[in-house]
Amino acid sequence: MVRKNPEVDLRLQYRKTFEVALIIALALMIVAFKFFPDVSPPDKILKVEQEIVDVEDIEITKQENRPPPPPRPPIPIEAPSDENVEDVEIMSTELQPAEEAPPPPPQEDEEVYFVAVEELPEPIGGLAALQSAVVYPEIAKRAGVEGTVYVEAFVDESGNVTKTTVVKGIGAGCDEAAQAAVMKTKFKPGKQRGKPVKVRMSIPIRFRLQK
After folding, report:
1. Is residue 181 part of a domain?
2. What is the CATH number of the domain that holds 130?
3. Which pLDDT tens digit goes with each residue over 11-62?
4. Which of 193, 160, 166 is nearest to 179 (CA)?
């Protein structure tokens, strides 16, 4: 065990100092009570009156909606006298019966052209004769236009072409030339079950420049 030297022990010195200070403080208190024994309060004590303020509760005012202004008085209108009133003729409101529309004209029976038949119409002389009837337009020749025009021909029971339409054209006057060649060509009529019938068929017309 480690033992401290009492001469260098700081705790012992603090304790001595505390005891000496306590003795001095007690001596001072004894001297004070001995030489100043009268500790009674002063004869007069100043009283300060506290001002009382009355606080009134103020009601919270509400903004009331003002009533709408009264309506304006109507402007007096002078009523017309009986002398100024003219006689007004009131027309009848009864509905009049509508006039009967004339009946539509009788429709003629539309011509029916077959598309698929047992025997298709054929140009007399073959397609070569039809092709030779085509007149090559000069404008198409100068422009170098070539191609195939597909013309739809409506051939009746007698083999005559009644109408033509261009299904696919190449322009430059070739479409009109192909239609004209088909219109003036005579056909062998198409047949269905051995009977001539009206047939609608597509015919190719070729335009080729000779080189």
Report:
1. yes
2. 3.30.2420.10
3. 666 777 888 888 888 888 887 777 766 656 555 555 556 666 666 666 666 5
4. 166
